[in-house]
Amino acid sequence: SSSITELLGTLCDCSLSGVSWKRRALGGVSKEGFRRALKRRAYDALLSKLFLDGSKVSSSGPSATAQTPPRNRVLMICFDLRVAGCREEAERLEDQLGRLPEEASSGLKEIDAVLELLVHLAGSAPPPSTSF
Amino acid sequence: MASAANANLNAVRETMDVLLEISRLLNTGLDLESLSICVRLCEQGINPEALSAVIKELRKASESLKTSENCTN
Question: What is the pLDDT of residue A58?
């Protein structure tokens, strides 16, 4: 099992896939330098969120949405999809959620935390391009 | 002993398949490799909201790099 620092480093590498470094090296941007800058940004984002969470809790308390279990939040997304006319996607999502085992039988320790991450990232990628 | 380990491995594989499909339906932009790393980070106790902020930040940085690459081409 890898440490948090190793895993964050690998995550940075994943986000750099597809970048041509041969041409970049000529322009003075080295892969190692950019990787270091990327890791710094990753840690900044991680730590700023950590401190922001602490101040939020002390001033107003966690919001109702934040307290909703992630499985229910996925169901809320299913509802939104239906309202938006995407019935097929909503049904597929509900179906997959139903197939997701409880933590004890999943083989994973933090399945609800992963589901919460997916909810936070929902819709964050550009829509898939359609080819003709 | 070995069969218990195999059963656990199969359970992890099936769970990962379902998580990947949910991820795809939610349009999170995570591929299998990134999702696997995120699962392990969550298992190490990283807050999911903070991790989502990290992923968005990494995307912004790599997108700006790719955009500048396209401009110089």
Answer: 46
List B residues 50-69 in contact with A (Cβ-Cβ < 8 A). 50-59, 61-62, 65-66, 69
Packing angle, helices A31-59 and A4-15, rounded to 10: 120
Note the pLDDT tens digit of each residue in A58-74.
Answer: 445 556 667 889 999 99
A95: nearest Cα among A115, A74, A123: A74
Residues in CB range of A25: below 8 A, 6 or more apart: A31
Q: Does B30 touch chain A (CB under 8 A)?
A: yes
Chain B residue closest in CA terms to A17: B62
Distance from CA of A53 to the nearest CA of B (A): 9
Cβ <8 Å between B42 and A115: no
* Window from A20-29, B3-12, B18-27, B41-50 with minimum mean pLDDT: A20-29
ipTM, two decimals, is 0.89
Q: Phi and psi dihedrals of A88, rounded to 5?
A: -60, -45
Number of neighbours of residue A8 by Cβ within 10 angstroms: 22
Name the band, by pLDDT with cuts 50, 70 and 90, for residue A21.
low
| pLDDT number for residue B37 | 96
